[in-house]
Amino acid sequence: MDRGHFQSDRTKSRSGFVLLVFVIAIGLMLLITALYMGTLSPFAPFEGTEADRYSDPNAYPWEEGHLFINKQLDGYHMGGRRGPFRAQPSLPRKLIYVTEVYDGDEPRGEIRLTIYKNGDAGGNWNADFRIGRRRYLAVAEPEERENIFLGNTAPLKIYEDENGKDRSRLYVITAGFFRLQELGKNNGVAGAAYLTAWIDKQYKAEGELAMPSFINGEAAIFYWGPVEPTEQ
Questions:
Q1: Does residue 9 lie in a domain region?
Q2: Of these four, 51, 99, 162, 226, which has the most CB atoms within 10 Å of its CB?
Q3: pTM (2 decimals)?
Q4: Residues of 52-82 as b/e, b for ≥16 C-beta within 10 angstroms?
Q5: Does any domain span residue 134?
Q6: Is residue 205 situated within a structural domain?
Q7: What HEC string does 151-198 produce?
């Protein structure tokens, strides 16, 4: 074989190898960039970009059905299960919050919210209060699933207020049905309700008990916290 022809083949082979290494390097760089930006991360939604991946911070809980865990999605969608982001509080143990809820300065009973290590959450509401001359009673009934709430943590929702975004807080959303019995009357008031929370890095929490259709069909939002978790 001609020596020049042999050297030419070896040069072509070396050039091909360099080109292959270059293509692989570019591919790895693109993959790392995609993972860093969140577009291929299991902690990102399957569709959408970094700009639209987060839930509207001003949305009402009854507009956030996509934040509830859908086990079939397996973590690749807004409704999939995922752990907290690094900036958010981890869940090293079960957290329990017990505190009163308020409508302005008026107490509206007591809520109990439990967040488990795997991200599941559950709560209840017990209340005995007056609005005008009417006295209402809410009693948590697990068997009837009244005043009982179930849900999960939702790391993809970002806290925001007049001071801007705070990515270090972890959102919790639960849903259920409330029932208020007006004492002395046969009929009660019932409807959908949502118990939510924001947990900071020190595990202090605050949140809302929201009902889109309360007494006379009007929406009501009661507030609670900030409060520390109870001792186990």
A1: no
A2: 99
A3: 0.76
A4: ebbbeeeeebeebeebebeeeeebebbbbeb
A5: yes
A6: yes
A7: EEECCCECEEECCEEECCCEEEEEEEEEEEEECCCCCEEEEEEEEEEE
Mean pLDDT of 81-90: 88
Q: Which has the higher per-residue pLDDT, 110 or 56?
A: 110
Is residue 82 in a domain? yes
Q: For residue 211, give the nearest of 199, 200, 223 by alpha carbon.
A: 223
Residues in CB range of 135: below 8 A, 6 or more apart:
128, 129, 182, 183, 184
pLDDT digit string, tens, across residues 48-70:
444 445 678 788 999 988 888 87
From the list 95, 98, 101, the residue with the least C-alpha distance to 114 is: 95
Q: Which residues neighbour 174 within 8 Å (Cβ) at sequence distance 6 or greater? A: 113, 121, 122, 123, 149, 150, 151, 152, 194, 195, 196
Domain of residue 106 covers: 61-227
pLDDT category of residue 15 using cuts at 50, 70 and 90: low
Domain total of the chain: 1
